[in-house]
Description:
The protein is of the alpha+beta class and 666 residues long. Residues 117, 128-131 line the site of one 2-acetamido-2-deoxy-beta-D-glucopyranose.
Amino acid sequence: MAIVLRSLHFLVLVYVSYTLLALAQDETGFIYNGFRDDQANLSLDGLAKIHPNGLLQLTNLSRNAVGHAFYQFPMKFNTTSSLSFSTNFVFAMVPAVEDNGGQGIAFTISPSRNFSHAEANRYLGLFNDSNDNSSANHILAIELNPVPGSDFGNITDHVGIDVNSIDSVEIAPATYFTDKEGKNISLELTSGKPMHLWIDYNETEKFLNVTLAPTTIPKPNRPLLSRHIDLSQYLLESMYVGFSSATGTLASDHYILGWSFNKSGPSQSLDVSSLPPLPKRKETPSLVLITSFIAVAIVLITVAGAVAYILRRKKYEELREDWEEEYGPHRFSYKNLHKATKGFKDTELLGEGGFGKVYIGTLPSNVQIAVKRVSHDSKQGMKEFVAEIVSMGRLRHRNLVQLLGYCRRRGELLLVYDYMPNGSLDRFLYGNKKPNLNWAQRFRIIRGVASGLLYLHEEWEQVVLHRDVKSSNILLDAELNGKLGDFGLARLHDHGTNPQTTSLVGTVGYLAPELYRTGRATTFTDVFAFGAFILEVACGRMPLKVQAQGQAEQVILVDWVTECCRRGAILDTSDPRLEGNYVVEEMELVLKLGLLCSHAIPSARPSMKQVVQFLDGDADLRELPHYNASFDAITSKESYDFLSFPFSQASAPSMSSTDSFVRGGR
Ligand SMILES: *[C@@H]1O[C@H](CO)[C@@H](O)[C@H](O)[C@H]1NC(C)=O
Ligand SMILES: *[C@@H]1O[C@H](CO)[C@@H](O)[C@H](O)[C@H]1NC(C)=O
Ligand SMILES: *[C@@H]1O[C@H](CO)[C@@H](O)[C@H](O)[C@H]1NC(C)=O
Ligand SMILES: *[C@@H]1O[C@H](CO)[C@@H](O)[C@H](O)[C@H]1NC(C)=O
């Protein structure tokens, strides 16, 4: 059984091979379902080539090029008896860019397959200027042309019958007829999809029929072109059949996928499913695609940019109002301050005070600055405050920390000062990290601060109250010169509060007794605080100190010094860290002056002018009218007693109107 089957198989193979051979040899017809066979017997020229998969390519994307593929052997036409022929083939035009497609493909019957004289950029690779339209050509061509010709109006995708000339004798737009829909459907020749064309000539009827269709459907019943034509006038006995293709200025890949030809009866149908596939063109993105991609990219970039910009804006956002215009020169941009302080990094933190954190910063000019971030929540009074701050920027004295400018943000005010490399005085007096100050240094600081305060009180165009003189507000420059800082800042807490309530600003221990009653700061209250301050420097003790071992009893420095003074032992109060190394007269002067400034009765306190005179030795303390009475008078003890704060911290707490209870100190 198996042997019989195998023999049968063999017989069939032999028979098929024989028929194919016979067909090829008698040269009346052939069929190529792809051109895989080495012996395809095609004659190629120009760009024409056969791909390994059997695809016949006529032209590629090179411009102004031609390609020809002709059956190698001529067909015998007997002009009196056998002119009929039938052919069908599948072609494809794959243009580089969607809307062009070369000059097209022409199925050609020609006496010669030498087209070396043809022009590459016109005439479909068949003619040249001089022989176009010459009856000596004996050429019949069916052109598939995506480019409008000069003939029959400008029809882009068209099929034409050409006799001896590029100018068609008849053309039709590329369409096919479907019975199903009962109408013509347009085809785009350069769609890149394979299409099927049938050409049939019947010698007796003398009709040349041309039929086009997509490969997905069988041959339509109605031809696209049906032309009465007597080919005996044109054809010669020996004619070559094949294809001509030219790219012109619009390049395109032109392909023939399969081809069937017959001179004695209808051509065999191609097996469309076995035709070689078209190469997958690397999708050259269309202009629309590129444009939309670019548009999307631009939109994305714009959005990203906008978001970045907004975030940046938000990050560096400032509050800026019209009235601030005049303070322009004093205005710092937040961005610059942000940069200068490395983004307000913790490593740049100099200290944290009652009003906010202070950061060190470096401006692009290499100038070092201190930036104080003061939080504020009220808009109210901000205008006046900024006006005051800016006007204080105009204050110039060697014993004042120079205010360089400000910046406002939502809920925040930034004040920019000269940077003081040695920090605040209290750290020298109480901290262990800083070296001990000797008496000469201390005395110089006291004198400096006194002249700074005098400048504020009397020497500037208007009286400026400091309101918060204390050792932590005295800053030391590189040469240990004392400079008053934070002047006027206490005022910030005045703003936005009910004017009916008493504003109490300053630091406990430095607050003059009358402040608790009136709440009004005066030069006298500043002098009182100055008194507490100089006692602090001389004694190395805070004005108010909770006794050790948690006793509720507070030691009030003034009272203690007063007591020692009454005993005639005022020098006992001098800072032990000085180890007795001081100028006795100066120490006594400072201590007594401290007591005088701390007088409970405001008018009994000396003015800053007098204070400076005493310190400079230009006046004698004893000349003061209250001098003798001063040390017997009631001290501030009584004033403090009624307050009885629940002190729990060893440091001097500061107090302000906004927080009516004691707040943690520095
Ligand atoms: C095709 O060409 C080859 C080589 O030129 C030849 O051997 C063969 O006989 C040809 N086939 C036909 C059918 O003419
Ligand atoms: C077209 O084919 C020719 C011949 O094979 C080749 O030299 C040329 O580079 C090709 N052009 C393109 C654009 O592929
Ligand atoms: C053409 O056909 C006619 C009629 O059949 C015949 O007489 C003539 O010899 C043929 N011509 C050639 C060249 O074969
Ligand atoms: C045009 O082609 C013909 C042959 O087809 C040739 O004899 C002639 O020289 C060509 N003319 C030009 C200008 O190339």
